[in-house]
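Hi R.,

Here's the chain you asked about this morning:
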Amino acid sequence: MYDMLTHCPLFKGLSAEAIENILHDRQYSVDKFSDGYVIARRDTAYSGLMIVLEGRVNGVVPGKDGKKMIIDTISAPQLIAPAFLFGGYNRLPIDVEADGDVSIMTLHRGLLFELMQDDTIIMSNFIDIISDRANMLMKKIYFLSFKNIRDKVSRYISDHTNAENPVLDLGDLNELSVYFNAPRNSIITVLNDLNRHGTIKYNDGRIEVLKRDKLT
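And the predicted structure, written out as tokens:
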């Protein structure tokens, strides 16, 4: 477990031995959940920071048609909704469901306070995590301000490449469709169109920018 936590953003910069010493005799829990299990419900009080130790979870909200809509996918060893742990409204904005077999570590809010007081690395890491999440949220709002999917995709490619490194691996298009709030097929259509016009070279999820001026 401690080896896994060395890759967790909260414990970045700490060795497995150091993490074990920090958590020794501390009150935390580790629980296992099976595929599809609802680990936490939306609008419930969030009093303990959850960390995915094994597997991954989905952040889910009900869609307009009553079907579940995946808002975010969180894999080990990432944190679940750290920005909602503190503040006047510390409630989860989503349902948290296991995507396959999952192991979750929970650090009570009071314990996290103690850890941050005792170790400046953990405190610095948590501040960085919250700041990064805020920046990510602003980027999502920024993308949603574009009127069409072509603008969103073009801007995303432009922001994630440069003249020195014009290549981008898009990764999972399903995750991008959530990020852009647009159907996966619409993203593929735009990519193929940019490829056809020679703006980019697109093949099997890999993009190479050929004409940056046209892209921007």
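The beta strands are 28-33, 38-40, 48-62, 68-75, 79-80, 95-108, 167-169, 200-203, 206-209.

Let me know if you need anything else.
M.
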